């Protein structure tokens, strides 16, 4: 083992590794900060360049792209309520309210601190627990997936908004939208209303941009028209933050540490299980942190712990997400699948034998992950310093630019004007849903998980030949099913008691 470590050290101490890791982090942050251009798109754009790089520099660049893009998505989410990446939508809950209070610098620094801390901790989880955790992940099949996803949806529905009823309606709409496209087994078109462009379903990016970004422009325009004086006062407040509003104090860092630790554990567990992803990690971390907080009423109104939970939850998925990739050859999400492509280009085949036959290279990759975190801290700090100045832009100019980026972000995803139309339709729908006080992020998460839930349920029923008891026969699946039932009954009892208390 000592020889492998020394060989790995020699492989890491090469200027190319440091340069391409820095390039990946920087480019990833830029791509993540532009709505519609996610970390996965950054990896897609630069993946062909790995043909001309060695194995370690190419993987260093790809991992830097993933880490940088993950953090970069929080920048527009905090400043303009526009998530640069899908997982950053949860950061908008508390990040944007803080920016409206003139505390954008504090919010961005909290996001950076939580991202780097959780990312580093999750990389340590990968380094020390890869082998034993892979054995646990190997026991998770379609029935377990189904119950974990079902549990996540119920939790999101009941706890994500002030009204469980509205949360369930939002989840139902999201699941309904997920059925648009072709039947996953028979290939029969369904609910596409004759549009060939919907054969593969609704694209997540134009939908998210429309619901969260374009609808926000419409809402802001309405508020500006109705309350011009108030809008001007708010604009001045945004552009002139005080010293305390600009910096993140050591006391506030300490205050956020329990939340970051809790979210890191949740995100690490989510990352180990292939197919769930960063969005669920961020959402469950946020909900659990709000539940454990002594002042849950502050969440959604500008709580630093809310930003820390979201960013720690989605960044903590990164390290453990490589556990099934390196040990089983199973990518945990789209970004991991693209990184797997980078491995294959270099003739490396992740799997059970990879850790034994390529031990020095594996240790070198672990070191590259930690180097990428250091670059994220440095480059992210520079971006935070200059990104805050974007709040000085007049709102009329700012939201015109937001609309432009909304159209561009929707178009570049598939180079399709149809996606622009989809974004516009969902922008109007988001405006209406906001008026009805339905949770837009809940809707998007339900849409994101809906097709995966259907696929896993069908796989489970195929294995059991139509026997639904498969979901309670297996221990892990039964455990999550029992937790789902318990939490649902708990909320029903609490809601009933609340109504009885109000009735007199």
From TrEMBL:
Supply the alphabetized keyword list.
Answer: Membrane, Transmembrane, Transmembrane helix
Cite a single Pfam family from the UniProt record. Answer: TctA
The record, for InterPro entries, names: DUF112_TM
Q: Which residues form the DUF112 domain?
A: 19-444
Q: Where are the transmembrane segments?
A: 18-37, 44-65, 124-141, 148-178, 198-219, 264-288, 330-349, 361-387, 393-412, 424-450, 470-493
What is the protein's name according to its record?
Tripartite tricarboxylate transporter permease
Protein source organism: Mailhella massiliensis
